[in-house]
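Module 6 notes. Inverse folding takes a fixed backbone as the condition and produces residue identities as the prediction. Think of it as a translation problem where the source language is geometry and the target language is the twenty amino acids. Below is one complete input and output pair. Work through it position by position during the lab.
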């Protein structure tokens, strides 16, 4: 990924995400970013992941840029805290325990492949989007830390998308399109 962020910009992103969640949970208000570093004023896609004592508490983002990065961080932070359908909304008593992780995404690139090994070599360690008809899902690169290998990664991503667990094994006959991307955490 071409774009990198300074330690000061990363610190700003972290403070912005925390402030957005805390203000929304405590006051029901959405903050407006102030004194925004120039790199965060660009349109970039991001995901915000919330963890409570190391356990996933919410994760929401966009695969394509929809706004300036600073505004997307505010929106995705609030969404991760209140609109991730896997979890109830974050409550005020949980705020002190939350850990914030912001992943800024590169532009997704469609891949082609001939064999299972070719597919594996192109996706290993990267973020992946799968699409088949109206079904679409993604895993951030961090998910690789929690799976036993490429087959589990693809199988669980297919289930997440709502298609058959082993659909990916049909390779090009499956009708699945694959897009890879990288992130800066």
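Target side of the pair, the amino acids:
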């Amino acid at each position: 990924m071409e774009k990198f962020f300074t330690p000061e910009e990363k610190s700003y992103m972290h403070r912005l995400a925390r402030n957005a969640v805390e203000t929304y949970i405590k006051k029901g208000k959405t903050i407006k970013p102030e004194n925004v570093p120039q790199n965060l004023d660009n349109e970039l896609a991001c995901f915000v992941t919330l963890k409570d004592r190391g356990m996933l508490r919410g994760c929401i983002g966009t695969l394509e840029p929809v706004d300036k990065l600073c505004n997307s961080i505010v929106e995705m932070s609030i969404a991760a805290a209140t609109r991730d359908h896997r979890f109830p909304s974050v409550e005020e008593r949980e705020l002190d325990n939350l850990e914030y992780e912001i992943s800024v995404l590169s532009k997704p690139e469609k891949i082609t492949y001939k064999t299972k090994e070719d597919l594996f070599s192109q996706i290993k360690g990267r973020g992946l989007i799968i699409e088949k008809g109206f079904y679409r899902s993604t895993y951030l690169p961090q998910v690789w830390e929690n799976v036993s290998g490429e087959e589990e990664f693809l199988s669980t991503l297919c289930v997440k998308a709502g298609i058959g667990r082993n659909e990916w094994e049909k390779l090009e006959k499956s009708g699945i399109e694959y897009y890879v991307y990288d992130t800066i955490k």
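Reference fact for the lab report: The domain at 7-105 is CATH 3.30.700.20 (Glycoprotein, Type 4 Pilin).
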